[in-house]
Structures are given as structure tokens and as C-alpha cells.
Amino acid sequence: MRRHLLILLTVAVLLPSFAALVIGWVGVIEHQKAMEVVAQSYVKDLAQNFADRIEAGWETRTGFSRMERMMRFHRMSFDLSIPGWVAVVDSNGRLLLSTSGADILTTLWQQEIPIGSAVDVISSGGERFTLAAYPAGATGWFVIAAVSWNELLGPMLAFNRWPFYVGLTGLLGLLSVYALWRWLVSPLRFLEAEVSVLKWGKEVPVRDDPKAVFELRRLRQVLYQLALSAMERAKLMKRYVSDIVRVQEEERSKLAREIHDGPLQDVTALIQQLRLATSEVKREESVDRLHLAEEGAIHVVRELRSLCDELSPPWLDLGLAQALQELADRFSRHLGISVSLEVDGEIPLSREETLAFFRVVQEAVHNSFRHGNADSVVIRLFEEDGMAVLEVVDDGKGFDLEVDVESLRVSGHRGLANMNERMSLIGGTLDIKSTPGEGTTVRCSVPITSASA
Amino acid sequence: MAIRIVLADDHPLTRVGLRDYLLKEEDFELVGEASDGIEAGRLIESKKPDVALLDIRMPGESGVSLARKVRDLSPSTAVIMLTSYDAQQYVLSSLKAGAKGFVLKTTTPEDLARAIRIVASGGLYLDSEVSQAMESPGFSPENLSSREREVLVEAARGLSSKEIAGKLYISERTVQTHLGSIYDKLGARNKTEAMLLALKYGVVSLEELLE
User: Fold this and answer.
1) Which of residues A159 and A363 earns the better pLDDT score?
2) Is the ipTM of this complex over 0.85?
3) Domain of B193?
4) Per-residue DSSP letters for B112-159?
5) What is the CA radius of gyration of chain A?
6) Do B89 and B35 sit in the same domain of this protein?
7) Domains of chain A
8) Do B85 and A269 touch (CB under 8 A)?
9) Which residue in B has a C-alpha nearest to residue A326's C-alpha?
């Protein structure tokens, strides 16, 4: 119902006005017909009535004086309260007696008008009259009675032009519906369709719609501004996130480098000195103590090494292929699953790209093991259509991709979102294909640029 | 005759330690010390030592890239790579660059001396801590078949299973089977370990594997 409200409203406005127009028109026609009958019988009665009262002898000069005739006539016409005229003419149409204003009747009087019945006559001025003539007794005169439609029906006559009004109303109605549709309904629907599929933060709607009414245009501009600021926010957010990732990565590699060049070397030197001291000491007890110290120091070296590996492994410097091989070897050693690497050819990658791919593989293999219960993971690195492509394919239990990355991020599972972030930072894309029970494929690619060569 | 040695390490404390290790051996002669890659290159060129101990991470030039140059600068010099890191890929990179030995800085004076003597006499030495991870005690490797040797050599050159299959006219599945059998025989868990162990046991030569 509400879905088609606009159409319903349009019809609801249009239909009653048409109905009123048609009913009014029918009413006018009916009324006009009734008035015709009334006017005809009226003029007939009037003419007959006058004719009956004109007695024989009126026609002779001796019977009545002219004055007397007029007095009698006027007395007769006093009770004439309906607009109309009565006149007495002789057989030649000459006016003998008339009520005031009845001069017009002589112009209407024509010989061919049948005696004793009412007819409609149109005057030379275009006015309509209903007129009846009756013989006045034996005098040889005629009584003519008439009413004017203009005076009788007045403004109602205007409705004689009903087809014009119906047409005009219909046209206006159609025009207003068209205007309503073109400037309000259609732009509104267009706006609704556009906004409903708009990716907020990524797209903006069309700024202006010159076909829409002012309010809609304003609304569109407001929406445009909103979308623009959403985009700004998204951009800021992205920059913010990328800054965090970059700074974090910088800090990590700086820390790893400092541990490697500082404490790790210092403790190594300490071990060397302990060993030298051990070889020079003769007392058994002291030798034991030195051995203990050495063991402790070696333990520290291993701790520091794994700390470096966790932060940012120095062997990343060897390039992606070797770093991934080392990572795969370590994963298979530590997790007890098969992690293999297949590299096709040499792919020139920048340090950032190497790091991004490395982190994606770290996360992906980790997920395969922890969430996918995979037994085997294959990492593939190859070139395809000018893109460096990395695939991590597992035979795990897979998952439902309906769960989108954003909602995972919101609920605190940052793994997938992080991989996505890493790739978008270097201008690459990440694509995850997974079917429950059929494993997962993480595929990421980045264009190979000459800058990274 | 004394073994003439150049030592390059940017960290002063560990360099002192290593120097003291070397000075304990009477037949070792330390002919030069460097604290960066460039200085080390100059020393090797001028002194033409029998053995060069190079840190992998050094300012100026890394040990790996310097090792590659040593073949030209002083062909008679055997390079031993020194590092704080046990990454197997470092070992492979070093060997590919022409190093004959790989020693962790935390090694004992005895092992360092042994490594120097082995490479000086033309041998190959890999630190026990790097290869220890690959061996279980009491394990002895079996001989590889000639087909397995071929597969291993091709795999070591960086070919994928598919490529090896194409090159040797066998199926990819057969390649996988061979690799599995190679790992079992050498006690390796992956390709890198298989390569390193094959080198260590002398199953394949360095030249064969890394050419």
C-alpha cells in the first residue's frame, strides 16, 4: 500500500476531479432539458392566456380606444412575474401592443413560426429564445410570448461549452500528473534507487538533479555532502590504519635490529668470554659454575633470537622466496604439518611488498593450522599478467565466507582484516576463497612495478 | 705451516672473543681484523688469507655479498660465515655465495678451530647447532638412489615438483614420492634440510647442488 502511495495519491487526486466534472456535466444537460420543457410550456401558456383575453372587437377602432386597449393589456400583464415578453402583432407582423422591452420580439417573429407550439429561436445577436405564437380570438392578430434563455438560465448557459471544459480539466489534470511524476516522483525514485545501493565512504551520489523539485535538489545536495564527508572519514581512517601498521612495522624492525646488534651480540661475547675463562680455570667447582653461566647465556641468546624472529626476522633481507622458505620450514617444524613452497622464477619486489607478502603468509598459515585444522599447506609465488601473485592453499575444513571481513574485525578477529590491510597498503588485493569442508585459498596479488625491481 | 686468517665482525666485543679463540691455537695466524664489509674486502685482497671469517650482517657490505667477491679477490681464500642466526636459509645463501663453512658466533673455541682446519684443507663445515636441528641421535643416513640424487639436485636448484617432473620425464606424483624417500633416508623434514644434510653427509657435492 505505502509502497505505491505516490501512484495512489496521483490517481486519488485525478479521479474525483474527473468524476465531479462528469456528474456536473450530466446535471447541467438534464437541467437544460428540464428548463427547455418548462420554458416551452410557459411561453405556450402565456401566449394562450393572453390570446384568450383579447376579445373580439379589440381590432376595431370603434370597440376600444387605443388608450383603453393599452390599459387593458397592461393590466393583464401585471401578474406576469416571470421574465418574459408578450406582444400582440397583426397578421403583417406589425407590433400593436407589447410589454416593455418586447420590441425584440418583432425581430424574432417570422412567418414560418408555427402557430400554437413553442420553438427555439436564435436571434441575430446569437441569443437563444423560446417563443410561442397564438391567434388572438377572432381578431386576426397573434399573441407572441417569449422568454430569453440568457435571463432564464443565466450563467448555467456557459456550461454549453462542456467539451472544452472537460478537455481543459483533463489536460490540466494530465499536466499536473506529468509534472508531479517528472519533478517529484521520478526524481524521488531515482534518488532512492541511487542511495540504496550507494557504498558509503567509497562513493558519492550525483550532486544535482535539475529535473527534481527544489526540496529534492536540496536533499540531494545534503546527501552528497554527507557522502563526501563519509568518504573523507573513510580516507582518514584508512590513512590512520595504514600509519599504525607502518609505524608498528617500523618499530618492530627497529627493535629487532637493536636486539640483534645489541644484547644478542653482547650476550654472545659474554658466552665467548665465559668459554675462554672456563678453559683457563683449574678449580672444578668454578668450572661447573662457569658452565652453568654459559648455559644460561646460551638460553638468553636463543630467547633473543626468537624474539627477533617474532618482531621482524633479519632473514627477511634474503628476499621473499628465501624468507618464505625459511618460514615454511619453521612452520612445518613447529606445527608438525606439511608447509611447502613453490616459487616460479625471480619476482622483483620492494621491501614493503616482501614484508606484506611475508605477513600475509604468516597469518594465513597460522589460520590454516589453528582454525582450519589443515594437514598440509602449499604456498605458491608466481608471476601472472604483470602481477606478483601469492597463494596459500590449505586442505583444512574451510569456513563460510558469508561472514564478512568487517564484522570479523568488529568482533576483534583482526587476522583477515589485517591481511586485507597489508595488501591494500602496497596497492595489492586480497581474495579469499573457501568452502566448508573443502579448504581455503588465500590469494593476493600486487602489480609488479619497475620501481620495485 | 700456519693457517692465515682474516676476521671481520662489526661488533667489537664478539670480535675480541673470536680473536681470543683464534689466538689459543698455535697454528693459526690472525693476519687482519675488520669491522665492516668494505675494510674486510680490502684486507682479503691484500693479505690473501687461507681463511676469512665473515659476519653475515655488517655495515658497508654484507658477508654474503662479500663472499661472492672473494672468489675474484682471492681465489685461494676459503670463507666461513659467522652469524648469530640459525636460519637455514642463511646457510644456503652463504653456500651459494661460495662460503665453505657456516658457524654460529656462540660456537665453542674447539668447534671454531675445527671448522677453520676443515675448510682450510678444502672441506665443508656446517655448525652443529644448525644441523643439530635436523638430526636425531644415532641416526645414520642411507644412500640415495641415482634417481633420488637427480631429483634432489633439481629441487636444490629451485625447481618446483612440476618442473622436475617435466625435466626428468616422470609424473609429479613420482617426484613427490622420491622427495619423501629422500627426506626419510637423510632424516630431513623439508627440502632445505634435505639439501643441507646431503651436503653434510657428502651425498652430493656443493658444486653439484648449488651450481
Assistant:
1) A363
2) no
3) 146-210
4) HHHHHHHHHTT--EE-HHHHHTT--TT--PPPPPHHHHHHHHHHHTT-
5) 54
6) yes
7) 2-163 (3.30.450.20), 315-452 (3.30.565.10)
8) no
9) B89
